[in-house]
């Protein structure tokens, strides 16, 4: 969650040419050497600006016809079209949706909208994987207000070694209650914290995770019970701690699964046997 490896964009101009070429090799729209220089400069500026909106990315030097052709060329990134490999590569790079960490990333979103930044329509650094649910929520966000933007999962400096996403668990009326929260740690600048807070609220992350947690808990419930039955609360706590470490190695310290298991390993009312009833286990 929160961070994706920047895709290899060395072939960006080749991918653009593919988007502007029919299967029979005929150009949909000619791309001159001068056009390539202009587009490459836009791509370079995008990297320098780390995807932040700027007039340098509008493609003022391109003709209207070429700009519109590039925008339309995004259709080649869809399934069964000429740049399907680009689409697949970006989605595989993500795995799970970086916004929620729940569902597989199965759609691409233009971080800067292609309707405005037409020259970036098929540029891999501007194509960010999301699941359908998160992407559907993001589509309606203009991003005009910096406080109401989704972060750029390729570029934003989200801490990867310090925890800022936490789970808070308690047992109430024999049921396990779980809430997740962002915390404004020193390593997370105020603007980024605000954007993370905005996007988690926008996609309804807490309520979606509440539904997901129940199913996830069942995946390790019997292992937890076996540990407790063989070694008491000490063994149960070690079981949770071991799983938390494994999840951190696999998904990172700020993934919801890591946060959940970390908190449960610190919740003595849970690991001392209090988990049996909430997890519908037989004592």
Report on this model:
Helices cover 43% and strands 8% of the residues. By secondary structure, it is mainly alpha-helical. A two-stranded antiparallel sheet has the order 1-2. A hairpin with a 2-residue loop joins strand 3 and strand 4. Helix 8 (221-251) crosses helix 9. The longest helix is centred in the C-terminal third of the chain and has 31 residues, at 221-251. It starts with 11 loop residues before the first helix and ends in a 12-residue tail after the last helix.
Give me a quick take on this structure:
Helix content is 43%, strand content 8%. The chain is mainly α. Strand 3 (165-172) and strand 4 (175-182) form a beta hairpin.
Give the SSE layout:
Blueprint: H1 12-19, H2 33-49, H3 64-72, H4 84-94, E1 107-110, E2 127-130, H5 132-138, E3 165-172, E4 175-182, H6 190-202, H7 205-218, H8 221-251, H9 256-264, H10 268-271
Antiparallel strand pairs: 1-2, 3-4
Helix pairs in contact: 8-9
Arrangement of strands in the largest sheet = 1-2
Structural class: mainly alpha
> Total number of β-strand segments?
4
Q: Categorize the overall geometry.
A: elongated
Q: What letter string, H or E per element, gives the SSE order?
A: HHHHEEHEEHHHHH
Please tally the helical runs, counting DSSP H or I stretches of 4 or more residues: 10
- In terms of per-residue confidence, which ranges show pLDDT below 50 for 5 or more consecutive residues? none
Mean pLDDT, all residues: 94
In this structure, how is the largest beta sheet organized?
Answer: 2 strands, antiparallel
């Amino acid at each position: 969650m929160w961070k994706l490896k920047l895709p290899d964009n060395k072939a960006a101009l080749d991918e653009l040419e593919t988007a502007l070429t029919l299967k029979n090799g005929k150009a949909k729209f000619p791309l001159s050497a001068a056009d390539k220089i202009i587009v490459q400069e836009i791509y370079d500026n995008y990297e320098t600006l780390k995807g932040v909106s700027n007039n340098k990315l509008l493609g003022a030097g391109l003709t209207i016809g070429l700009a519109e052709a590039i925008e339309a060329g995004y259709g080649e990134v869809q399934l069964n079209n000429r740049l399907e490999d680009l689409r697949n590569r970006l989605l595989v790079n993500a795995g799970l949706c970086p916004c929620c960490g729940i569902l597989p990333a199965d759609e691409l979103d233009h971080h800067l909208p292609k309707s405005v930044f037409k020259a970036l329509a098929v540029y891999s650094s501007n194509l960010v994987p999301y699941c359908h649910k998160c992407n559907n929520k993001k589509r309606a966000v203009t991003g005009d207000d910096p406080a109401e933007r989704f972060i750029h999962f390729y570029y934003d400096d989200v801490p990867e070694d310090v925890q800022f996403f936490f789970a808070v668990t308690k047992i109430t009326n024999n049921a396990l209650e779980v809430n997740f929260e962002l915390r404004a740690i020193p390593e997370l600048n105020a603007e980024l914290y605000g954007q993370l807070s905005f996007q988690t609220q926008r996609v309804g992350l807490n309520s979606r995770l509440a539904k997901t947690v129940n199913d996830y808990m069942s995946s390790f419930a019997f292992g937890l019970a076996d540990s407790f039955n063989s070694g008491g609360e000490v063994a149960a706590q070690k079981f949770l701690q071991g799983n938390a470490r494994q999840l951190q190695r696999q998904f990172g310290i700020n993934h919801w699964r890591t946060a959940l298991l970390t908190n449960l390993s610190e919740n003595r009312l849970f690991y001392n046997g209090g988990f049996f009833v909430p997890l519908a286990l037989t004592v």
